[in-house]
Amino acid sequence: MKKQTIIQDLYHYIKMRTWLKVLVISLSAVFLISLSLFLFIIYGGGLIVDEEALVLPATTSVVTEDEEYAGRLFTQNRSLVSLDEIPEHVQKAFIAVEDERFYSHAGVDFRSVVRAMYRDLIAFDKVEGASTITQQLAKNLFLDNTQSWMRKTKEVMASIYLERHYTKDDILELYLNEVYFAHGIFGVDAAAEYFFNKPVGDLSISEGAMLAGMVKGPNMYSPYVDEERALNRRNLVLAQMERTNVLDTNERLALQGQSLNVTPQSSDGVPWIDDYLEAVIREAEDRFLLTREELQRGGYTVTVHMDTVAQQTAYDLMQDDAFFYGSTDDVEAAFTMIDAKTGHLSAVIGGRDYKIGDEHRAFNAHQPGSVMKPLAVYGPALEEGYTPYQFVDDEQNDFDGYRVQNVDQVYDGDVTMYDALARSKNTSAVWLLDQIGVSTGKNYLEKMNLTLPDEGLSIALGGIEQGFSPIQIAEGYRTFINNGQFQESYTIKHIVDRDGNEVEPTHSVKQEQVFSPQASWDMVRMLEGVVNEGTAQAGDFNKALAGKTGTTEHPHAPGNAKDAWFTGLTPEYVTTLWMGYDRSDADHYLTRGSAAPTELTKAILTEIDQQQTLSETFTSPDGIKDLPEPIRLPNVDDLEVDHTFGGWRLIRGELTWTPAEDERIEYHVYQEQPGDDELLGTVEGTGTFNLNDMGLFSENHYYVIPYNPLTEEYGNPSNTVRLSLFNE
Fold it and tell me: Is the Cα dihedral 631, 410, 383, 434 positive or negative?
């Protein structure tokens, strides 16, 4: 019996030891697992925290040289500020409502969870959040919004990591810059500008409280969604600020009595800016190697050369259907304006209703038509030794099977370069390009960044394979008013990054001397003639203007136009305006040619002139011989003759006629003779000629021919008059 008892005791002892051993092992395992989990939670946050995400996306601000707003580029509309720039009362408003123990906890505040549940029940509203500011920041930066224990665990891990590696001020600054305020607005500074039209540093206590109240439900508590709810929420925040000793009772009551006073929001926006912003983005990509994505998140400040008056004026007038003539209502257009002196791109319109991401028609190539003539033919010809009043051919010639016609079917045989350009004679342009050589014309074009593969004489008329963009055409024309020097246009003055460092361009804009100053100025004067008495007379503009029209024939709608152009030069600006359709088929064609863009350009310039006075006349550069105005020979049909008496010749004759207003015209007086008529003399600018050598009983016949000393051209003979002693 005793032996059995011993065996039983031994059994129970062994069993107890086994149980104790299992318990110890189990407890040890639990401890080790708990310790591992604890250490993982404490130190594993680094696996969740993405340091790149701590660099918040910031809005790139685009401003003019006068610090006027010119647009924003962003993925998240945010302007970064330091904690020092945020008023203390704004900081305390967020802490009071979101995490009153922010400066005393280590990232997770378990006491706040219980307290927040209690206060929310008492207030019947979300007065205080259970998550700390650090947890909210961690969730917003590194996690999604799914509700799960795993996501919450990760949030805690990331929060602890942030608390261990960053100061409380660092975390609060990140939080206030990161938090969302509805309407696409991120961060307190952008919110201050959006809701109150002021920087965050100028926010009042009441305004800061309203923003702090929006955090828990931005779309619910936005004053633009529900003003009464936003007001009640702000008042709850003010009450919480009193409870946490930020405000006293009198202050809280006074502040709760204030209205929200938010800035009214316009639904229209600034639709005329997108066109220019796209040009800025493209230049930043090309010259500064900043990608579109980097601009949208990098928080740069880009100072640009946009002329806000010109940009908005061009946009507004391009909305007027009265300037557009087409088979359907969707006629498109593109407009560019370059500063004549600097080369700055002052304005650019990519379409009548352009939005970023659309086809930017100012950068798209179109068939240029006759706007090519000065660039490919007349400018090069002047540089090669031709003169504006030199005669060129105006006949239908055959150039190895290539024949052209003038639009008006009028052929003068010979015509001056000045008049050939003014009247846009196709035959003369082709003939002149043949004389100077296609390769010569192309060489000049290439210096102006107008490179083309074409080799035929059709280049003279803009009949080219790929076409050119309105910006390219405007840059080429600016060469004439810039003393013959080509320069690429540009939008950006400078770029500064979020740390205040200037971003240097990788290369400068291209510049090259193409024409001599004299040839260039002669070209400007010739283009002035196109406006004053040539194909660009449509529309009204009473200040200095030169330019060239261009129209291309529609391939599927004979008698109608595919592209219509006008490029204009003033002493201040160079403009190019294109009209046409995005697709060219039998159903889409222009019913009016270059007169339409000419009229619209003049309307734009007239409107700009009302706000910034444009020059009355062109002034020739120093050291340049100005081109005299053309001489137009009159038809003299009122020649008369009569006797005069007196002097040592008792009987003399006097020829009289009505002279033209242009006193430069010479009048050559002839007497009819058998064989060749005799030149009796020449008078300039007057309508009187004295006949001294006349026989007493003879009968003589006289006539006058006007003469142009610029072109050495004779006009038509006048009527013939008879003079004798017995004239009736």
Answer: negative
Interval 556-593: pLDDT, tens: 999 999 999 999 999 999 999 999 999 889 999 999 99
Does the pLDDT value for residue 650 go beyond 80?
Answer: no
Tell me, yes or no, whether 341 lies in a domain: yes
Whether residue 107 sits in one domain with residue 39? no
With CA atoms as reference, report the closest residue to 68 among 316, 287, 310, 343. 310
Closest CA to 402 of 461, 448, 347, 446: 461
Largest Cα–Cα separation, the chain: 190
Say if CB 392 and CB 415 are below 8 A apart.
Answer: yes
Go through 8-35 and write b for each residue having 16 or more CB atoms within 10 A of its CB, e for each that does not: eeeeeeeeeeeeeeeeeeeeeeeeeeee
Q: What is the pLDDT of residues 519-546, one digit of tens each?
A: 999 999 999 999 999 999 999 999 999 9
Angle (CA) 107 110 112, round 5°? 95
Q: Are residues 597 and 708 in the same domain?
A: no
Map residue 438 onto helix, strand or coil: helix
Cα(676)–Cα(679) distance, rounded to whole angstroms?
9
Residue 406 lies in a domain: yes
The CB density around residue 528, as the number of other CB atoms within 10 Å, is 22
pLDDT of residue 128: 47
Answer positive or negative: Cα dihedral of 372, 375, 376, 377: positive
The total domain count for the chain is 4
| Same structural domain, 401 and 495 | yes
Q: Is position 299 within any domain?
A: no
Report residue 173 as tokens.
Answer: 């600054």
Q: At what angle do helices 205-214 and 227-243 cross, to 10 degrees?
A: 110
CA torsion through residues 214, 219, 225, 228, sign: negative
Domain that holds residue 568: 318-611
570 and 666 within one domain: no
CATH for 443: 3.40.710.10
C-alpha span between 102 and 133 (Å, rounded): 7
Are 686 and 574 in a shared domain? no
3-state secondary structure of 468: strand
Q: Is 354 in the same domain as 228?
A: no
Q: Are 335 and 470 contacting, i.e. CB atoms less than 8 angstroms apart?
A: yes
The mean per-residue pLDDT over the stretch 464-475 comes to: 95
Asked if residue 516 lies in contact with residue 485, where contact means CB atoms within 8 angstroms, the answer is no
User: What SS3 class is residue 110?
Assistant: helix
User: Each residue of 358-407: pLDDT tens digit?
Assistant: 999 999 999 999 999 999 999 999 999 999 999 999 999 989 889 999 99
For residue range 16-44, list pLDDT tens digits in order: 666 666 666 766 666 555 555 554 455 55
Check: CB of residue 146 under 8 Å from CB of residue 123. Answer: no
**In the predicted model, what is the mean pLDDT of the chain?**
89
Q: Which residues are catalytic?
A: 98, 370
Give the lowest-confidence range in 163-167, 428-432, 711-715. Answer: 163-167
99 CB-side CA count, 13 A: 23
In the structure encoding, which two tokens stand for residue 664, read together?
């430069």
Q: Is residue 479 part of a domain?
A: yes
